[in-house]
Specification:
By secondary structure, the chain is mainly α. It has helices at 2-35, 44-73, 78-81, 86-118, 120-126, 129-147, 175-216, 220-259, 276-309, 311-320, 329-345, and strands at 157-160, 165-168. It has one domain (2-333): Rhopdopsin 7-helix transmembrane proteins (Up-down Bundle). Helices cover 78% and strands 2% of the residues. It starts with a helix and ends with a helix.
Amino acid sequence: RSVQCRSVSVVFPLTMMVTGMVGNTLALLLVYKSYHRKENKKKKSFLLFIGSLALTDFIGQILTSPIVISVYLSNREWEKVDPSGKLCEFFGICMTMFGLCPLFLASAMAMERTLAIRVPHWYSNHVKPRVTIVLVALIWICVFIFAMLPIVGVGQYTLQWPGTWCFIGARDQHIGNQFFASTFAVLGIFCLMTTLSCNVATIKALVTRCKKKTSTSPGHSSNYWERITMETLIQLLGIMCVLCVCWSPLLIMMMKMIFKDISAEQCKTSGTFPNEELQKECNVFLTAIRLASLNQILDPWVYLLLREILLQKFCQLANAVSSCSNEGRKDTQVTAETSEKQTVDS
């Protein structure tokens, strides 16, 4: 029975690793292909950000998933895989770096889009691919230095429930540990708020520009702006939903760990809990970290693959009820209904 339970448990990290690697590989190939198209010269900075995000998620999964799978195959006994404890520190560094980097890259992309929409002339003169490469490199370097702080004594990485992963320890009242854990949470919340604020500003600017184009340039130009607006709105809303759902629980739990006595470090890897409250706290924290890991799988789909493969079909339905679409609303609705009927018949 224990062997069967172990085989079922290992399916989750194995499935997440394979799915994430496939999605990020497709995203990297698509970015490479799009980057070298002449018509995408103005999108090179955005494509560099997406490629960097996909590469970051891909490397993070390659470095962490095999460790988790090995621990599950060892019946969740971390000591068998890591008798020296060095692997736990390495795993914690990877979790910190490849957790914060995507958040910073997401906020940088959100700012890039806001500048491109709200101040296009300044954007075209100042935001160049070389600047984007330097910014991405700075994000990687700064986050790596931050993740290495526990190695020099500021903070610590500890084994977490259910004994299959290591992360930032926050229970200890040592000022260095609290500083490191709280800084991680604050940086993550800052990135989330920046991304959400910039995306809201971009949505507002897009809707305003779309209304102006619709009223001043009826016809083909109007339909083009309606389509671009709807595609971008759906993508931005998807990004905001994914980031909030995946990262908010973990960041909230991190703050809770800092200010409350109960923390995930009190969880026993043997699976026994002194009280129901602690058991619930441990399960919530495990769910939160799994949601954050799920973000690495969803990133390439939300940022790129979803737009290329599915977004046009979504827009056919969305345009039918869009207040921005005045001309051709009936035609769009008929097209959407016909497409839906054909899908059902097939």
